[in-house]
Design a protein that fits this description.
The protein is mostly helical. The chain is 62% helix and 0% strand. It has 4 helices and no strands. The longest helix has 25 residues. The N and C termini lie close together (5 Å).
């Protein structure tokens, strides 16, 4: 006889997937808005188009089913996006500052403001990460990582 650990069947309320899908669509809109800034660089513009498609891909899946793979993908994509933007915005970063403009990351530093589009994108990505990590934590807490989550087999 096999019993399934109730924690293995944890589901997420529908509103979580819908909220995450809305945030992903907002990210896609912000990427489209940034295309004008990336126009001089074909590689950067192409990456922006790919990221827009990625946002819409995740939004569709989160709206419809929101399985564990989708939530983990959202977490990873947004963490990478935040790291990339913070790296390229920093004065010593690979890009010498986002779009060639160094943005000091120290509070109170001269000219420490982010462009509004970038600030919005980082805020949306941070919200997506917080929601996705919360969902993944909720779904996996109490599960044995080795796979022997207290199940009995005869």
């Amino acid at each position: 006889m096999t019993t399934v650990d109730p924690a293995a069947r944890r589901t997420t309320p529908t509103w979580c997937g819908r909220a995450a899908a809305a945030l992903a669509v907002a990210s896609a809109v912000l990427h489209v808005g940034a295309l004008g800034e990336h126009a001089p660089s074909p590689a950067s513009a192409a990456l922006t188009v790919v990221m827009t498609a990625g946002c819409l891909y995740c939004a569709r899946h989160l709206w419809r089913r929101g399985d564990q793979r989708d939530w983990i993908l959202v977490t990873v994509m947004n963490v990478v996006m935040i790291m990339l933007h913070l790296t390229t915005m920093s004065p010593g970063g690979a890009g010498g500052g986002h779009h060639g403009h160094a943005v000091p990351l120290v509070a109170g530093a001269a000219d420490a403001s982010l462009p509004p589009l970038m600030a919005a994108a980082l805020a949306v990505a941070s919200a997506e990460v917080l929601l996705a990590v919360s969902v993944v934590f909720h779904r996996t807490r109490g599960l044995d990582p080795a796979g022997s989550s207290g199940t009995l087999s005869a």
